[in-house]
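Here we describe the complex-level prediction in full. Unlike the single-chain runs in Section 2.1, the two entities below were treated as one system.
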Amino acid sequence: MPVALPNVRLSVPVYYVIAPAEASSNLSRFDGVRYGHRAEHYADLTDMYRKSRAEGFGAEVKRRILVGTYVLSHGYYDAYYLKAQQVRRLIADDFARAYAQCDVIMGPTAPSPAFRIGAKTDDPVQMYLNDIFTIAGNLTGAPAISIPCGFDRDGLPIGLQIQANYFAEAKLLNVAHTFQQATDWHCRAPEFAA
Amino acid sequence: MKWEVVIGLETHAQLSTASKIFSGAPTAFGAAPNTQASAVDIALPGVLPVANRGAVERAIRFGLAVGATINRRSVFARKNYFYPDLPKGYQISQYEIPVVAGGHVAIVSPTRGEVEVRLTRAHLEEDAGKSLHEDFHGMTGIDLNRAGTPLLEIVTEPDLTSSDEAVAYAKALHALVRWIGICDGNMQEGSFRCDANVSVRRPGAPLGTRCEIKNLNSFRFMQDAIDFEVRRQIELIGDGGTVVQETRLYDPDRRETRSMRSKEDAQDYRYFPDPDLPPLVIGEDWIARVKGEMPELPEAMKHRFVRDYALPAADAAALTTSRELAAYFEAAAGAAGGEAKAVANWMLGELAAALNRAELDIAHSPVAAGQLAGLLKRIADGTISGKIAKDVFDAMWAGEAHGDDAADAIIATKGLRQISDTGAIERIVDDAIAANPAIVAEYKAGKDKAFNSLVGKVMAASKGKANPAQVNAILKKKLG
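The structure predicted for the assembly as a whole is:
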């Protein structure tokens, strides 16, 4: 039975405002004073912070810190962070309505089969969009599980995501277990490229 | 040309909880560096804060004491900035929705009389650690013992119009937080510190640009700093300059304020609700319980003292500056029975002076309330004069007798009982008149001062024990 989740399409933009915002703040403690890498040479305190963090963090972490700092900045907070939190509520409401009609929501874990390591590193938006089906769970805080459900014609694995309402973890695990009793996808491994 | 001074104060009161606001580490002052910092206080990655119920309860107490709104739902927020003694890289505070909104504190202004100073808000937050620059050559030491100490930041509206009023407010607030038992008020240890926002304007003009003076940890510094800042701003404007919004530090050695950072370098703190803490929800039952446990507040007690003990307002105010003082007064006035004004006079005079000299507070007074009452009863019933009473007081202070009847014991042992026997006084008066013919002659020649001199001779001859009223009457009669 299909259910309508009209706001779920906004999950990726919402997530990529809220998660970087939190990350930018959470990662502040890696400033070279007590935690994280400290640069070897620096002129003063500000220089120590700048160099330590520039040297210590990788590209994706820096990207998220920059985005997160931006969306929390004075004059941008309402348009990005606050708006994202409001849409997050709309997404959670969609799921609450859906669970009044059904027990679990099933679908693919990702929009495409697995891509090769490093294949999309240069295109972070493409990489982020791959999270479109799973990210709603991060936003609502409701439980979800991903289990193997087959392979594509190139032999790459495909995941089945099962989502359930708050505190319905037992139901979720039972559904997954029942699926795995009827199938053997979880016993098969993809062939490794030579 | 007249100027109006506009001042608002922000006060950080350290809440008197045993443990920190988001961790179980102790808050005691003076421990060896970093021995009172838990995994949460040092911001170990992965740890989570849990709000301290005792800190919230103290905030509720404060809100009720100042007639404020207790927000049933308030929100902890992160204030993000980098500093070495801020281990998380953010301070947990409250921003858009504080726990306490509104309220007011009554003060007596030297120029405006009774004034209600309006409060904007009071919010809960954690203190930062301390940077230690001495003892570490070319380096800075970090002590995180203070990190996570619970603070209540209390913010006024710009309602204060002079440094006198600012100090009166700070003192009233200081007395209040101690009265309701939420803060020990120890200013040397930083438990109560103020920031002052100061601006000047022409009467009727819009608010001038303000400067914020940080970390005023004594009432005298506050007075000095504000006075300096007001002079500086008036002179600056008078010379054709303009005040720039900035943060200034007070230097007590040079008695001046100095620029610390201007608005242009003001940081963007990127406040946002702390995702690690749920909204702070306070139930009606909790508020009702705290309300039921509130002591009588100083304002109410002051009015009761005026009403029930017929004290002047100034005495009532002075006796309600601390709960200990007020309790001493009530105990002594009760035991002395009907001598409330005398109790007030002695407490604010002789006793206050003695405590001051000995650097003691009322709770540690060597003369207990019952003892003072015992002494005042003997003045009232004519056993001793007020002058002799001071000697008895000194003897009690020195511990020469104990218990509520200490005054009686000292009067008996030292033979200080007042001479009220008319015959005995007449004999002393006769002797004095006979021994001082020159003074008597002066008096008879119309010099009234000579009379006082004769009273002095009589009192001296009786070793101060003769009843002064009787001496006066008898002397007058005998001199005709």
